[in-house]
């Protein structure tokens, strides 16, 4: 469960993780020892998983971003796990989503230009025997939320993730909508 101080600390850390503990304590209206103790608890509980530098991709020669949709065949756990491990090793890859629907993966990449994008698809992806289909969309703009608040309400119970419904019965819990896996 998160209290108001935890939420304030999370907001402040997401806004500026480089601030000192003293600055963080002042911004959240607590003494530094309390701030330090609470941040350590958030780290220990796995709520805060790290502190990262944001990089402007254009300044490092990766001004073109794309989403690459990949269908894998056969769609087995072993094949998906191996492909995910392989794709994450490529330097162009920013992130990988394992998805449901028409494609098994959505791969977020950043490259220098459209020629590099073309090379990524042809030289890396089409050479893999497990890839049945590739679809690419160029990203014109990428906006991200800089502060992510915990989700209270739908999908949670008392601030904690709601346990998954038992498989096989196809029924929603009383008072809850039935959700489609294809939105």
TrEMBL record:
The keyword Transcription applies. Keywords: DNA-binding, Transcription, Transcription regulation. Pfam families: AsnC_trans_reg, HTH_24. Residues 1-63 form the HTH asnC-type domain. PROSITE patterns: HTH_ASNC_2. Residues 161-172 have a biased composition (Low complexity). It comes from the Bacteria. Gene3D superfamilies: 3.30.70.920, Winged helix-like DNA-binding domain superfamily/Winged helix DNA-binding domain. Residues 151-183 are annotated as: Disordered. This is Lrp/AsnC family transcriptional regulator. It comes from Amycolatopsis melonis. The lineage of its organism: Bacteria, Bacillati, Actinomycetota, Actinomycetes, Pseudonocardiales.
């Amino acid at each position: 469960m998160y209290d108001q101080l935890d939420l304030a600390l999370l907001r402040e850390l997401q806004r500026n993780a480089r601030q000192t503990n003293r600055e963080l304590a002042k911004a959240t209206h607590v003494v530094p020892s309390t701030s330090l103790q609470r941040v350590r608890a958030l780290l220990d509980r796995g709520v805060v998983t790290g502190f990262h530098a944001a990089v402007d991709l254009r300044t490092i020669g990766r001004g073109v971003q794309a989403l690459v949709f990949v269908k894998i065949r056969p769609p087995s756990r072993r094949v998906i796990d191996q492909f995910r491990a392989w794709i994450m090793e490529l330097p162009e890859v920013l992130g990988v989503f394992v998805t449901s629907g028409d494609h098994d993966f959505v791969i977020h990449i950043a490259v220098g230009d459209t020629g590099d994008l073309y090379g990524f698809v042809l030289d890396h992806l089409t050479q893999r025997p497990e890839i049945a289909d590739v679809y690419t969309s160029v990203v014109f703009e990428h906006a991200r939320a800089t502060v992510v608040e915990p989700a209270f309400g739908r999908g949670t119970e008392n601030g904690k993730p709601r346990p998954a419904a038992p498989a096989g019965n196809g029924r929603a819990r009383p008072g809850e909508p039935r959700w489609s896996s294809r939105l």
